[in-house]
Design goal:
three-stranded antiparallel sheet, single chain, alpha+beta, 2 domains, 5 strands
Amino acid sequence: MKKLIKVQEHLKAPKSQFNSFGKYKYRNQEDILEALKPLLAEQELLLTLTDEVKEICNVMYVEATATITDGKESIIVKAQAGININKKGMDIAQTFGSSSSYARKYALNAMFLIDDTKDADNQDNTVAQPTQAPKQQQPQVSDEQAIEAIAKLNKALNVDELVTVWKEILTREERLHVDVIAEKNKLKTKLS
């Protein structure tokens, strides 16, 4: 669809949000949509975003679907985000909303070729050593495999069980997946 290519080419979605805890700038779903609206109108394209709550291995997640159409052709992109209903400081509606926003952001990223590889939510935020090897390419683990790995981690009742799952049950590729790393770090803090 040539109209989508035009939007991808001209889209500028700046990182206008700032995380004061992590000291980094980022963009959210609203930033992307604000930048997209005039481009979509110019190209006479309609963008819709929908969500579906799903479950794999007792892990609930939101699957967001971004659909763009010119009335003749449609392109559909999907992205997923896990739901942590026990997240501190959030009620259940907020946890679903947060996961929805996250999944929608990544569906939009995929649809419009927005690269967030330098965003803090895509990094392992452990303390860096003085000299680091170049980053390796993200391992080829499907979203379903990552969700299953996260479900295995969440079954750990203490740090020792978490370490056992990490070292003995998860594959090397699963341990290198950014979402699995983030969940492991979160659980380690929670269980300590």
